[in-house]
Amino acid sequence: MLGQASTKPHLSTTTFLRCGAIFTGATDELRQGGVIAVVDGKIHGILDAVPASTPATEIVDLRQDTCLPGLIDAHTHVLLQGDITAADYDKQLLKESQAYRAIVGAQSAKKALMYGFTTIRDLETEGAGYADVDIKHAIEGGIIPGPRMRVATRALDVTGAYPLQGYVPGLAVPHGVQLVDGPNECRKAVREQISYGADWIKVYVDRGYFVRPDGVLDDIPTFTPEELAAMVDEAHREGHPIAAHAMGLHGVHNAVVAGVDSVEHGNYIAPEDMKMMVAKGIYYVPTIYVGEYVAKGRAADGAPVWLQMIKIHEETFHRAMAAGVKIAFGTDVGGFDWNIDPAIEFGEMVKFGMTPAQALHAATSSAAQLLRMQNEIGTLETGKDADVVAAPGNPLQDVAVLQKVNFVMKDGVIYKQP
Q: What structural domains does the chain harbor?
């Protein structure tokens, strides 16, 4: 009868993952052997063996693999498909409809899941409006497969600072962000984005990068301190975190003083600003690989500074680790081709000075804390969501094996297996 509650009984589901080794994410250790028990989409415990009389249909044999928590990419763009040159970016905004981009974006989200990233923070739609909210809801509704998503919708920048630029005056062209000027517009835009489904707010705080004679990466700040303060205050007042695209001296400083929750890219961070990040608990999401990926294209476009920024970034990363800045894994995939496995970032983090265990924590427990989801994901512990991935080999010896993920479970549902 219409309106009557269903009387269909709930069918409990149980799965046992028999692993060759387990990295729980709660420690730096790799447990040899063990069985992850999954009941109704949650981790029920880690056992020494599969219980006697367990039906074979409930057992997944991963004894050749290392099992890990579902990976978390804290900086993605499912609605962007690589923008190594300005022409690539213009094509997506001028020649592809938002509907088309959403369809392709849904496929990018599926790729993220198949790579082993069961949760992503998608940091803006690059001119595709609120399509990220729709993709997120379609995944949550079981319409399409994809990772758990936290989304930032349109992002914020000032007039004249973000593409599309360079067209004749008077010609209205789309922009990759929501343009706002003045504290009142900034505050209103934050309210608007939250009302349409933004989990995070993203702001571009600098542009126009150049290297000073002393090796410092300098920049042109976008927003004034008053404008930034209004955005941060409004986001936090409504219980939403805010991420700052900040690559150079002044942008990072202004963002940190304003009290953002994460600094994205951070090619140069002054020592005093690192101390402030530690004191305020601000995360650093370095996105190393994308800088190398885009440097060649942008250097060819007449911006060789991007090649110089790579070395500056490495030095900053070393200082951030020494200072105790909290670092979370993020790739900026979408800024590079989605056909490249974002797990390539693990090798970059190790190359810049992390141990494999530190890089793994950055993409599991630390990223979960950044997303304020540490009670649900990030480690393989009883009661948490059953997000489990597996890869052949030992990632604590060679993080490159994470580019070979062959098993993906999210919320207890298997999406990929050997």
A: 14-70+379-416 (2.30.40.10), 71-342 (3.20.20.140)
